[in-house]
Amino acid sequence: MQLDQIIAFDRIAREGTFSRAAHALGLGQPAVSARILALEDAIGGSLFVRARNLRLTALGESFLPYARRALEVLREGAEASRLAQVGERGSVRIGVLGSLAGGLVGPALAVFVRARPRAECHVRSGDHEFLLQLLLDGIVDVALTVWPCASAVELTPLFLFREPVVLVAHPRHPLARSKQVTRDEVARLARPLLRLRWWQSHDPRISRLAEQSETSVEVAMETGRRLVASGVGAGFFARTYIAEELARGTLMEVPVRGLTLFRDSALVRRRHSGPISPALAAFIELLRRRTLQPDNPTKLKPAKKRSA
């Protein structure tokens, strides 16, 4: 059976006559009759009792709800395709560093979901190696991760940005009492100096500070944040990760004289992975704009954009 046959059957059932159905469909009555005959041949019986008052046969009555369900599914599919073309529907699958999931991706996703509530969003977070595996396995379409990386030959950066890495302590910590501290003071007063893995490897300058300090300890970012919030130790955090605490004043940024640190990151996708869907393109643009907003509390500084 063909779609135009089912449409003709539904229209005749609604209009009550072949002639009115033909007029509604913009066809001649012989064409409509031919479609119904072909449909009856496919189903194996008459759908209508052809009398002065046209009515459905028992076969027609049993087939009608399925025919209408099929037409409704097709209409829904056509509408979903139309919405996908303009980014209202579709799938957004992104992997993101845990330190960027809340401060950067979260606000962009909130704007996206409010504007496109029918889009499907899947956000996975983890460390750099985990995200690359998700991306290369096709589980996510794009990943927001540190840059550059060893797998760069297989990846295309969509945009880059540079994020400050700052020394953070509790407002009552000895380091927070000065407007600016020296590296020697950091090594001596942190107690302990928290070594946090915010890049693929530790920055050598922080490693030297840790060697100089007698109380350094290596912890995960979340553990480090909780320690500092409790007044224990100080550490160098990617700003996005602790932007809300800095804005509230529950944690303090402590400038270190002669020490400026950044983390370079990029939103990347696999090379030769096909076109980007309209929905994903819309989310990528929201995320890119988020990195450029002057009032963004993360204060991200965009690096030079590379062509994809």
In terms of topology, how is this protein built?
Blueprint: H1 3-15, H2 18-25, H3 29-43, E1 48-49, E2 55-56, H4 58-85, E3 91-97, H5 98-115, E4 120-126, H6 128-136, E5 142-146, E6 155-169, H7 183-189, E7 193-196, H8 204-212, E8 217-219, H9 221-229, E9 234-238, H10 243-248, E10 252-253, E11 261-270, H11 278-292
Parallel strand pairs: 3-4, 3-5, 7-8, 7-9
Antiparallel strand pairs: 1-2, 5-11, 6-9, 6-10, 6-11
Helix pairs in contact: 1-2, 1-3, 1-4, 2-3, 5-11
Features:
nine-stranded mixed β-sheet, D-Maltodextrin-Binding Protein, domain 2, alpha/beta, 11 strands, Arc Repressor Mutant, subunit A, disordered C terminus, 308 residues
Question: How would you characterize the overall build of this protein?
Answer:
The structure is a single chain. This protein has 308 residues and is an alpha/beta fold. The chain has three domains: 83 residues, Arc Repressor Mutant, subunit A (Orthogonal Bundle); 101 residues, D-Maltodextrin-Binding Protein, domain 2, CATH 3.40.190; 100 residues, D-Maltodextrin-Binding Protein, domain 2 (3-Layer(aba) Sandwich). Helix content is 44%, strand content 20%. It contains eleven helices and eleven strands. Strands 3, 4, 5, 6, 7, 8, 9, 10 and 11 form a nine-stranded mixed sheet that branches. A two-stranded antiparallel sheet has the order 1-2. Strand 3, helix 5 and strand 4 form a beta-alpha-beta unit. Helix 1 crosses helix 2 and helix 5 packs across helix 11. The radius of gyration is 31 Å and the shape is rod-shaped. The C terminus is likely disordered.
